[in-house]
Amino acid sequence: MRMKAGSRWRSVACETEVVVVRAADADVELQCGGHAMAPAAGSPQPATRAPVPGLTGGSRLGKRYVDREHGLEVLCTRSGVGSLASSGVPLDIKDARPLPSSD
């Protein structure tokens, strides 16, 4: 599915919610806990499916996750127990850029 920057997504397997910071270059399926995420439009709904065993590494509030291959970047706005993935490939936590030295 083609996502737009600024769109909000929620997990159907846990409490995780994300905002797309940078849209992917291609069609990808954003997943959490092994299940496709749903648009977060409207009121929040409780999780309806259990996370797939082995995909419960969790998502961390305030961290950016990236799929370097497709250019997807999301910001976690609500943490949960499910692991984030893009079309089955786990997303990496984006490293902070080092600050310039003051010398």
Briefly characterize the structure.
The chain is an all-beta fold and 103 residues long. The protein has strands at residues 8-10, 17-22, 30-32, 35-36, 38-39, 64-67, 72-78, 84-86, 89-90, 92-93.
Give short descriptive properties of this protein:
single chain, 103 residues, mainly beta, six-stranded antiparallel beta sheet, four-stranded antiparallel beta sheet, 10 strands, 33% strand
Ends apart, CA distance between termini: 47 Å
Q: Based on helices, strands and strand pairing, what is the structural class?
A: mainly beta
Tell me the major beta sheet. Answer: 6 strands, antiparallel
Number of domains: 1
| Total of DSSP H or I helical runs spanning 4+ residues | 0
**Average pLDDT taken over every residue:** 89
Poorly predicted ranges (pLDDT <50, ≥5 residues)? Answer: none
Residue share in β-strands: 25-35%
Looking at the chains present, what oligomeric state does this protein adopt?
single chain
How many strand units?
10
Strand order of the largest sheet: 5-1-2-7-6-10
Helix-residue proportion? under 10%
Shape: globular
List the helices and strands and how they pair.
Blueprint: E1 8-10, E2 17-22, E3 30-32, E4 35-36, E5 38-39, E6 64-67, E7 72-78, E8 84-86, E9 89-90, E10 92-93
Antiparallel strand pairs: 1-2, 1-5, 2-7, 3-4, 3-8, 6-7, 6-10, 8-9
